[in-house]
């Protein structure tokens, strides 16, 4: 599933359609396409891994899931889940979830938990973590209600930067380490965005998919951790486990 920075890139790429009227809408999803015809797009927004197409009284929410893709001003052979045609150009989404959110989009989302939003509130994240002391940090970081937009790559790289073992328990991690993890979740997301735009993201991975720790020159371990069972890459020598 694309992480938050990739969805921000999508938002930037489709700005040519902001303020444009939908000439026709179609696709294989279950939404009412007739509602979209002749409607003007007010704005494109993102919340974590959600891509939002905002109209006057409703918003289309798109999640690209594991294998979702999109095409701007071109098509794939496969039928799109959602196709929007404008006077000049088109926007097509494939293998994704498409839903309509009614009313004011601000009533559906808490922007303060999105690590790339201007309203991101790290103090709120810290307060939420304090209420879940028995949760594994590798699960907590992937909780979209705390760190919207953070995915498995960011999780691994942040914990490696902070020298914290992914199986550490939140309540056992020193508060200054928790603060650093929270800050890095946002910082690394923006670095991810910068590197991905330059097509050099993988060059900057320090631990994700790696075999040898760059700091210790010892083997990196890969293990499915927490209740989410997502792959964690870590060094047992330099990443402290707090239990």
UniProtKB/TrEMBL annotation:
Segments forming domain FPG-type: 206-240
Substrates-to-products reaction catalysed: Hydrolysis of DNA containing ring-opened 7-methylguanine residues, releasing 2,6-diamino-4-hydroxy-5-(N-methyl)formamidopyrimidine; 2'-deoxyribonucleotide-(2'-deoxyribose 5'-phosphate)-2'-deoxyribonucleotide-DNA = a 3'-end 2'-deoxyribonucleotide-(2,3-dehydro-2,3-deoxyribose 5'-phosphate)-DNA + a 5'-end 5'-phospho-2'-deoxyribonucleoside-DNA + H(+)
UniProt keyword list: DNA damage, DNA repair, DNA-binding, Endonuclease, Glycosidase, Hydrolase, Lyase, Metal-binding, Multifunctional enzyme, Nuclease, Zinc, Zinc-finger
Protein name: Endonuclease-8
Domain Formamidopyrimidine-DNA glycosylase catalytic: start-end pairs: 2-92
GO-annotated molecular function: class I DNA-(apurinic or apyrimidinic site) endonuclease activity; damaged DNA binding; oxidized purine nucleobase lesion DNA N-glycosylase activity; zinc ion binding
EC number from the UniProt entry: 3.2.2.-, 4.2.99.18
The family this protein is said to belong to: Belongs to the FPG family.
Gene Ontology biological process: base-excision repair
């Amino acid at each position: 599933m694309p992480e938050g920075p990739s969805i921000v890139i999508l938002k930037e790429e489709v700005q040519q359609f902001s303020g444009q009227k939908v000439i026709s809408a179609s696709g294989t999803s279950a939404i009412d396409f007739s509602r979209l015809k002749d409607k003007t797009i007010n704005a494109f927004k993102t919340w974590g891994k959600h891509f939002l197409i905002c109209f006057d009284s409703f918003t289309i929410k798109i999640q690209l899931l594991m294998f979702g893709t999109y095409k701007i001003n071109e098509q794939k052979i496969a039928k799109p889940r959602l196709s929007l045609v404008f006077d000049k150009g088109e926007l097509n989404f494939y293998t994704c979830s498409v839903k309509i959110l009614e009313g004011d989009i601000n009533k559906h989302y808490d922007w303060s938990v999105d690590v790339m939003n201007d309203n991101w509130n790290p103090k709120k994240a810290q307060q939420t973590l304090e209420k879940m002391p028995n949760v594994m940090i590798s699960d907590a970081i992937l909780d979209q209600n705390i760190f919207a937009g953070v995915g498995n790559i960011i999780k691994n790289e942040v914990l490696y930067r902070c020298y914290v073992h992914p199986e550490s328990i939140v309540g056992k991690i020193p508060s200054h380490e928790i603060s650093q993890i929270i800050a890095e979740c946002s910082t690394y997301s923006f670095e991810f965005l910068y590197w991905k735009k330059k097509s050099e993201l993988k060059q900057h991975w320090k631990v994700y998919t790696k075999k040898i720790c760059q700091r210790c020159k010892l083997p990196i371990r890969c293990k499915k951790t927490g209740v989410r069972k997502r792959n964690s890459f870590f060094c047992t020598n330099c990443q402290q486990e707090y239990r």
